[in-house]
Fold this protein.
Amino acid sequence: MITPPPGVSRACTTLLGTPARTAERLKAGSRTAVYRAGLADGRSVIVKLYAPTAGRNAITEGIAMRAAEGAVPVPKVLGCGTTSTDGATALITSDLGTCTLGTAVRTRRVPHTQALKDLGDLLGRLHRAPLSPSVKRRPFVDFVSSLTRRCPADLMDQIAPALALIAETPGTAPVVWCHGDLHFDNVVLSGPRDTRHLVDFTDAAPGSRESDVAHALVMTAAHPPWDCDALISSYPLALNSARLSAWVVLITVRCWAYSAPGEDRALWRGRLTDLPHRTPHLFRTPRTERTPR
C-alpha cells in the first residue's frame, strides 16, 4: 500500500465525499489506471481513473454497468463523473476481492471447460440487458479505419472476405450490450458461492452478439472445437456462425495489431497464421506476380 496519488485522492473526495488513506495500483494503460483504495471510513473500493483524452470514459462505463446490473452480477457503482477542470473522469466501484476466474483456472480451482461455460452464460445474460438510447453503436467503418492505420495494406486485403461478410450484416440483426473485452481475468469470483461478476466495462457498447462471443473465444484461445463448443453451448441466444467466424478473424487481427513487440506479437502472429487453415473462405489468396517473358 502507498499514499494515494493525487488523482485517486481527488476522485474519492469529489465523488464519495470521503478521502482515501491508502492506494494500491492494480494496472495501468495509456488511457486508464486502476487502484484499490482504502477509504478513511474503512471501506475498500476500486478507483478507475480515465485520462482527459479518453474517447470512452468513466461516465460511459458507468452507464454500461448500470444497464448491465439488472441482467448480470457486476460491482456496485458508487460514483462516477468528472474530477478535474481538464476533463479527467473517474469511476469508483465496490471491491469484490482479488480472485478472478483466470486465477481459479490457473490454480485448477475451476476446470477450464467450466470456465468457458461460465463465460457463455455471462454473455447470454448480459446480451439480454436493455440498451441505453444515450450510448450509440460504434460504426463498423470506424473499427476498420482504426485497423487500417495499424495494419499493412496486404493484410487488410487478405481479410477482405471477412470484412465484407460483417459489413453485409442485415440491418435487422440484433444489437445488444457488448462487454467488448471478456476473458477469464475480467470475471471476479465473490461471495460464499463464488458468484461470477463481470468487471471492466471500458469498451462496453451496443454491438452484435457475434462480435462479443468472438472476442471471448479469441481471448481465451478457444480454438479447439471442444473449447468453442463449451462456450457456445452455454450461450442461450441464436448466433450466425458465418459472422461469428468472420469476427474471430477480425478480432485476432486487431489483437495482433495492438500487441507489444516480442513474445506477445509472436503469439498473435502464430494465431493469425493458423486462421486461414481453419477458415480459408474468409481470406483472399495473395496473387502471385508473373514475370514478363
In short: The first strand starts at residue 20 and ends at 28. The two ends are 72 Å apart (CA to CA). The domain at 6-94 is CATH 3.30.200.20 (Phosphorylase Kinase; domain 1).
